[in-house]
Write a structure and sequence with these properties.
about 170 residues, Archaeosine Trna-guanine Transglycosylase, Chain: A, domain 4, 2 domains, 10 strands, elongated, DUF7122 domain-containing protein, DUF7122
Length: about 170
């Protein structure tokens, strides 16, 4: 791994802070701890994945392994944004891993789920943590994650990417 961040290549995250060579780069342990603490996912949920940074704080999850660094355009799925005040999970990551979350999930009724998918702010009456939460909706008897929302000041702000917003 190089001792500097390069936005044109993927570098594998170091396992621990002791192995970190790029200042500010998250570690595999920190990423997994964040997901387990924030959303209640078991740490072994990510045992088959490697984690990579491309750019400043853009973390990708890859269900395989290759040599590091890697000069490719994409590697697995975008997973998490770090190097900002509050880490933010991606819509892809929440849709892929969020079904097994046990904490910080806002289950939206039909009207709020439709508004969320349009990119709108809702007021679902959440009585939990502020910050980035998993937005979900009950479909066919199961709670399914639909995206990421930011809950602040009694508002749940949809973080659905513009290109994925839908009118249902």
């Amino acid at each position: 791994m190089s001792a500097e961040n390069d936005g044109q290549r993927f570098d594998r995250l170091p396992e621990t802070a002791d192995e970190r060579t790029v200042e500010g780069r998250a570690t595999r342990a920190e990423v997994i701890d964040w997901w387990t603490e924030r959303f209640g996912l078991a740490a072994d949920h990510f045992s088959d994945h490697t984690f990579w940074e491309k750019g400043a704080g853009k973390i990708w999850a890859f269900a395989d392994d290759i040599d590091s660094p890697a000069r490719v355009e994409g590697l697995g799925m975008t997973f998490l944004r770090t190097r900002q005040e509050h880490w933010k999970p991606t819509t892809d990551a929440v849709q892929r891993f969020g079904a097994d979350a046990t904490r910080n999930i806002v289950v939206l009724d039909a009207a709020d789920a439709q508004a969320f998918l349009r990119g709108e702010t809702t007021t679902p009456g959440w009585d939990g943590d502020w910050g980035y939460l998993i937005a979900a909706h009950e479909i066919a008897g199961a709670v399914e994650p639909i995206g990421v929302g930011l809950y602040v000041h009694d508002e749940f702000r949809s973080q659905m990417p513009k290109g994925r917003q839908r009118e249902l």
